[in-house]
Specification:
Blueprint lengths: L1 E5 L10 E6 L6 E2 L4 E6 L4 E5 L4 E6 L6 E2 L4 E7 L7 H14 L8 H10 L17 H18 L4 H9 L12 H16 L2 E9 L1 H18 L6 H14 L6 E3 L2 E3 L6 E3 L1 E3 L2 E3 L2 E2 L7 H17 L4 H4 L4 E5 L18 E5 L3 E7 L2 E15 L5 H16 L2 H5 L2
Parallel strand pairs: 12-16, 16-17
Antiparallel strand pairs: 1-8, 2-4, 2-7, 3-6, 4-5, 6-8, 9-19, 10-11, 12-15, 13-14, 17-19, 18-19
Helix pairs in contact: 2-3, 7-8, 7-10
């Protein structure tokens, strides 16, 4: 019995997807729930699992093709077995291993570069934990391979001399992923449709650092997760949003939509680009729950297991450029939201406290906002509210 494999139902917000790569080829055995192909959407990479055990008989759509929900991808013969003698399969596997073509542990983005560049995968060293090959590893290997191929090709004397003079000057053209293209589109859209303005302030994080140092061991032992800075910022942001609801609002045509809930997006950097999974009802979450969910989001986003539901919605966002050493920046609003808070590097600076010059751990914070609905007064006061909550976290307990 034959079974047709079709594109899974895509969410309403996703019109189509790109078939990035086939994980199985015609004639190969497949197991139930085994991934057959990778589909890349504007937000995530989806897998197409096999619903049955059998053999992949025919592929209907080639890699690189744009597909829509329900479109026929392949045909599987249920219960069949691959027509490959055991000895031949063993010899083939051994030869593949010896040739270094066995696919290492990779994410979808890295696999796409490997396949498009026809790389010898056995020569790629993974830099991620567990030896996993990242997109950066694959791009670097592709660049090295290009240089090697160029050097090994026979050239006339003038051409060889020119190439030698230009050693290292190699251009590599890599197609923009759908996610990267979508990020670019949304950023340009935000800047062209919103009146964006950024206000700055600085926060003394000495008290927060002291609290983390005092309770970090007990917190991790009890909750199984480290006490980071992000939970303090999420709590402070929620408190400030309660005081200034317009910062949590959005524009819809000529209306201002005030959201009476707090779904906070937390930006996560991945190989494929920036993703912003959402903490639903952040006002109801404990410090431990916030840290646990952020850790889970980060792990799944970087492994390609994040879902569209995780990325959908959000009323306000936080991004932390400080993890990469950024001292100051102007973040761009994640439309249709109306504001985003940028965190930055904590740096010891000389500050005047009660008439004395002391060294304090300071962080610049930036609020980019849509000036169409948020006035400068509200933006500045919002930042002051965040600053007050972080410099005196006791306010979060008693609500002042």
């Amino acid at each position: 019995m034959s079974l047709e494999i079709r594109v899974p139902q895509l969410p309403e917000s996703v019109a189509d997807a790109t078939l990035v790569a086939w994980r199985k080829q015609p004639g190969e055995s497949v197991s139930r729930d085994e991934n057959l192909a990778d589909l890349e959407t504007d937000k995530v990479v989806l897998e197409v699992p096999s619903p049955i055990n059998g053999v992949l008989r025919e592929i209907k759509v080639q890699a690189g093709t744009s597909v829509k929900s329900g479109e026929l991808l392949a045909v599987i013969d249920e219960g069949a077995s691959a027509a490959v003698p055991a000895s031949a399969a063993t010899n083939g596997a051994s030869a593949e291993k010896a040739a270094g073509t066995a696919l290492p542990r990779t994410g979808p983005a890295a696999r796409r570069v490997i396949e498009e560049s026809k790389l010898n995968t056995g020569s790629i060293s993974g830099s991620a934990p567990g030896g996993r090959v990242t997109k950066t590893d694959a791009v670097a290997a592709a660049s090295t391979a290009s240089v090697g191929a160029a050097k090994s090709a026979p050239l006339a004397a003038p051409a060889a001399a020119a190439l030698e003079a230009r050693t290292g000057r190699v251009d590599q053209r890599v197609p923009m992923t759908r996610l990267r293209a979508r990020i670019a589109e949304r950023l340009i859209q935000a800047q062209s449709t919103q009146a964006l303005l950024t206000s700055f302030n600085e926060v003394d994080l000495g008290v927060v650092q002291e609290l983390r140092a005092r309770y970090k061991e007990g917190f991790e032992k009890k909750h199984g997760v480290k006490l980071g800075f992000m939970s303090f910022f999420v709590k402070a942001v929620v408190e400030a949003l309660k005081r200034f609801p317009v910062v949590n609002a959005s524009v819809e045509n000529n209306d201002i939509v005030y959201h009476e809930y707090f779904d906070i997006g937390v930006a996560v950097s991945t190989e494929r680009g920036l993703m912003v999974p959402v903490l639903r009802d952040a006002d109801t979450l404990s410090f431990a729950a916030i840290e646990q969910r952020i850790g889970d989001f980060a792990a799944r986003a970087r492994s390609g297991a994040i879902t569209l539901e995780d990325l959908t919605g959000g009323t306000f966002s936080i991004t932390n450029g400080g993890t990469f050493g950024s001292l100051m920046s102007t973040p761009i609003v994640n439309a249709p939201q109306s504001a985003i808070l940028g965190m930055h590097k904590i740096q010891d600076r000389a500050m005047v406290v009660k008439g004395q010059v002391v060294v304090r751990p300071m962080m610049y914070v930036a609020l980019t906002y849509d000036h169409r609905i948020i006035d400068g007064r509200e933006a500045v006061q919002f930042l002051v509210a965040v600053k007050d909550c972080l410099e005196d976290p006791g306010r979060l307990l008693i609500g002042v």
